[in-house]
Design brief:
The protein has three helices and seven strands, in the order E-H-H-E-E-E-E-E-E-H. Helices cover 27% and strands 49% of the residues. InterPro entries: Polyketide_cyclase/dehydratase (IPR019587), START-like_dom_sf (IPR023393).
Length: 147
């Protein structure tokens, strides 16, 4: 059974600036602690990552995942191609400009291959969703302000 979560955050940047930070998948491990490594396997013609292989560590489990991104003007989503610990993962960001800020909504749904106690799964999801919003916000502000 899939477990879902979502969260919103407002970031003082444009949708394009935010998507550029998300597209820099090789830098993700520097601001998202569950990502150990990320390697782009394939890119779209515009240079954005298409397929990415990543090593993810969460809830004491380390997994090698291959995901495929779909990029829009104000959104990005990804779906799981292969993994050892997950049956499926669908996640993404929807960006809504609000003046000089952007409302960022993150949604994720995962289905584990391995049994995990509910409280551990919930805590792990909560941590991942917080990083996907607050961690992204910190990284975007760092990049936008040139620090």
């Amino acid at each position: 059974m899939a477990t879902k979560d979502s969260r919103e955050v407002v970031i003082e940047a444009t949708p394009e600036q935010i998507l550029n930070v998300i597209a820099d998948v090789e830098a993700t491990p520097t601001w998202s602690p569950q990502y150990q490594k990320a390697e782009v396997l394939d890119r779209y013609d515009n240079g954005r990552p298409k397929q990415v292989k990543m090593t993810v560590k969460a809830a004491g489990l380390t997994d090698e995942q291959v995901i495929e991104y779909t990029w829009g003007d104000d959104s990005v989503s990804w779906t799981l191609i292969s993994a050892n610990q997950l049956k499926s993962q669908d996640a993404g960001y929807t960006l809504t400009p609000e003046g000089d800020k952007t409302r960022v909504k993150f949604d994720i749904a995962i289905d584990l291959s391995v049994p995990l106690p509910g409280f551990i799964l919930k805590r792990t999801m909560k941590g991942g969703v917080e990083t996907a919003t607050d961690g992204l916000r910190k990284q975007v502000l760092k990049v936008v302000k040139g620090g």
